[in-house]
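>> received
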Amino acid sequence: MKRLLSILLIISLCAVFTACAGKTEISETEATTSQAVTKAPKATSAAIQKAERLIRKGVDVSSYSGDIDWKKVKKSGIDFAMIRLGGRGYGAEGGLYTDKTALDNIDNAKAAGIKVGGYFFSQALTEDEAREEAEYITKLLDGRKLSLPIAYDLEKLEDEETRIENLSYAQGLKNASVFRKVLEKNGHKTAVYIESDGFLGAEDFNESEVWYSDFGKPYENDYLMLQYSKEGKVSGIPGDVDLNIMYIN
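>> returned
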């Protein structure tokens, strides 16, 4: 009997040790898994988010682009267009002008199913002049609503003397702010056109407000859109045309 009891006791102890060993193994596995989850990169990183966004192809045009067949442009795969609305002259007088094709391009592009935004070539020296430019655009559009923003385009051109040669950077920022506020008050979305080596810097604006120009460069930031080529070929547009891309969610 004593021998039988000893055998049963040994069997019981073995069962307990086996259960404990199993429990220890499971705990170690759980700990390892927990650490892996903690150290794993989040699936919502900026790179992954950008990869999952859709690219839209676009052009920007002016009267220099010639007579445009917007139906052909749409069929070629173009989704949006930034259309020059007008600008301010270089001289001391700095008169305002309308791009002669602006309204026709807006109406015909929209009719073809293309999303439309605009831009204005500014040479404003003061906040009052920037306000004048924005009010000029509001009157020009005469109630037309654009699905994309109107961009403030302040440029110093190479080998050309412009009105803004002596404009301070701080004043340029103030002018952009006033221009945008007037248009937004009148129901328009706005943006700022920034060249990689231009007058204003992208760092002073939210990326989602910037139409960035950098020819031949990849789309590395969350800008509103990127102008990446000035030698594009698009069916329906004579000659070369500027090409753009835009990411949407």
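>> Helices lie at 2-39, 46-51, 70-75, 102-111, 127-141, 169-185.
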